[in-house]
């Protein structure tokens, strides 16, 4: 299930909670359902959804719920809030990536003790499918290098980078900002 406004933000910040095994699995998924963006391979969500969802529908969902997956006899039925794809494409993509993560990681998630932790892992995995941490890190490293010896990149520069990444990777600006902040040296 995914919901709660602002989840995109929290989610990307939570990425560091992924174990190296899950990071590697996310890479494996990206490589099997590749979509090339700016020299990086992200996951092609539509192809991935075709593969893992038994059905994927637009649905009028309860307030606060953006997406939901129901498992029945091993089949996954996913619903995303009606109109989200049209009205908020970046949030739609994140919501879909979250639901796909619930399906892909189902067995792993079943072993986790609490729901909050499970949602956290799905958000982090979704972020890793859409905007791989390693790619952000590489870009930020170049920027830091370019400002070596000085006061470091300005807030305006970082914001510009966030806007460019959000546009390039088709993620929300919040997601891009948090992702970049995660890659900055501490104290910046
Ligand atoms: Zn969920």
Describe it:
The protein is α+β, with helices and mostly antiparallel strands and 188 residues long. The chain has a domain at 2-132. The chain has helices at 7-13, 20-32, 45-52, 84-87, 89-104, 106-110, 115-130, 133-146, 155-169, 173-183; strands spanning 2-3, 34-37, 40-43, 55-59, 65-72, 75-81. It has a 4-stranded mixed beta sheet with strand order 1-5-6-4, covered by helices on one side. It has a two-stranded antiparallel ribbon with strand order 2-3. Helix 1 crosses helix 7 and helix 1 packs parallel to helix 10. The radius of gyration is 17 Å and the shape is globular. The N and C termini lie far apart (35 Å).
- Sketch the major β-sheet: 4 strands, mixed
Bound molecules: zinc ion
- Overall pLDDT confidence: 88
Large-scale geometry: globular
Task: Characterize this entry briefly.
This protein is of the alpha+beta class and 188 residues long. It is 58% helix and 16% strand.
